Amino acid sequence: MIRQARLWLACLAGAAVLLGGCAKAPLASVPRAERAAIAARLSADIETLASDEFGGRQPGTPGGRLSVDYLTQRFGEVGLQSGTNDPGNPWRAPVRLTRFRADQSKIELVVEGRTVTLDPLEGIAVTTRKRELIAEGELVFVGYEAQMPIESVMGKVVLMLADESLNPERRILFEAKRASAVIVVPDVENAIEGAFVLRVRQEAGRERVALTGEIDEAFAVVASTQAMARAFGKARWDALRGAAREADFTPIALDAFVNIEATSERRDFTSYNVLGRLPGTKPDAQAVLLMAHWDHLGECAPLSAQDRICNGAVDNASGIASVLELTRRLVKTGPYERDIYVLATSAEELGLLGAKAFAANPPIPLDSLVAAFNFDSVAIAPAGSPIGFIGEGRTPLDPLVLQTVLETGRDLGNRDFAERFIERQDAWVLLQKGVPAIKLSSSFASPITSQPYFENHYHKPSDESDMIELGGAIDDLLLHEVLVQRLAIWAGTRP
């Protein structure tokens, strides 16, 4: 099918050459008054979505709910039908999420009848489950060795040494051997007491969000070498460390026990992708997808800051506004043979989670999408800027895109720079699933253009609507209009 698609797109690019060969002006140019009208409509949507009333559009907050309500209304206003293909749930496709972070932790070593409770700088146990509990777990010291008989660690609590990287491959081996837990002790000479444990504690205390049901179930325990010396006695602990360095070392049962308890805070909530559809005239002719994420970071500045709201005007109210305007124009010039789906994703900032939810439960089979175009942070570059092609060389779309870029009078930007962003945007999720998904944006054509934004405004309260630049965004919108028209019109049958 991919080969057929390449041939079809190559033919389409050739047809574009013939059709555009006699044009006196770049294909995607429009009169100045029309550009001004487009700019006014883009600005209106950006100003609304990036207003303080929307609170930074974080999923699971009142601002997130306002954003979904606004998009549902606007999708209908520009002429779309619901795209969920679920009459019971029009417009809104649930994205079920879980917030979680480490909470309480307690580690007790019982050595020769003496109980040693590790203080917060001596050890921490972290779980992604609500609660993890090990009572009187038998301790086995395995040194640095990962390759050992399964009976040595089965059902035991393993005490192992590691360098500062923690050697995660070793932990995986132990988990495969079904040890009930692994206590990792960084064996670093002259280590600052508790420094490593503190770093782990700080990282574990950071709130994270995942798709509900897709949280990696993890249980990690770390302790300092000072804690081990206090529990076992310095002489014995030094002897154990020395033995671990010997070539003939074998695991040592310590005649000691450990009690470990760890809990995490978890909260489930539901956000929504918003899905619209412009129906085509041939239901079996595949579909084109336009996508942009609606979410941002909410309140992200310190409590002491005068302005705490990260409004996300460029990232990504501008992308949503561009998709709305492009859709309005396509509705006006339609109908088309192919369906055109429009997707506003949630939780992009949390790890492309809305795109992942869409890919896991799409309204149509993913292999029926002939192309997907992602709009993200588009309002940076001035008019006449080159265009960045994120995803070049990865899909059958290249011939059509490159020919259309040429016809519309655009220059291609820095390819290496554009490629840096391939995994940092929603199209990557669909690309991984075999969908021809790309991102075309003048914002990502050159570090000279984008670096001031990323250094001074990206994910900061200063990303507000009064600093947007719409010239390049309008150029990009008009380029996409030509591409979508060609993809939606010129395929009467499946490629």
Write a brief structural summary.
It is built from 14 helices and 17 strands.
Fold and architecture overview:
With 495 residues, the protein is of the alpha/beta class. The chain is 34% helix and 25% strand. It has 14 helices and 17 strands. The chain has helices at residues 2-20, 32-49, 62-77, 168-176, 195-204, 225-232, 234-244, 313-333, 353-360, 398-407, 415-419, 427-432, 447-456, 471-489; strands spanning 81-82, 92-111, 114-117, 123-127, 131-143, 157-162, 181-186, 208-211, 219-223, 252-278, 287-293, 298-299, 309-310, 339-345, 369-374, 388-390, 437-441. It has a 15-stranded mixed sheet that branches. It has a two-stranded antiparallel ribbon with strand order 12-13. Helix 4 (168-176) links the parallel strand 6 and strand 7. Helix 8 packs across helix 14. The longest helix is centred in the middle third of the chain and has 21 residues, at 313-333. The protein is elongated and about 85 Å long.
Chain-wise SSE layout:
Elements: H1 2-20, H2 32-49, H3 62-77, E1 81-82, E2 92-111, E3 114-117, E4 123-127, E5 131-143, E6 157-162, H4 168-176, E7 181-186, H5 195-204, E8 208-211, E9 219-223, H6 225-232, H7 234-244, E10 252-278, E11 287-293, E12 298-299, E13 309-310, H8 313-333, E14 339-345, H9 353-360, E15 369-374, E16 388-390, H10 398-407, H11 415-419, H12 427-432, E17 437-441, H13 447-456, H14 471-489
Helix pairs in contact: 1-10, 2-8, 6-7, 8-14
Key structural traits:
single chain; 495 residues; alpha/beta; 15-stranded mixed sheet; two-stranded antiparallel ribbon; disordered C terminus
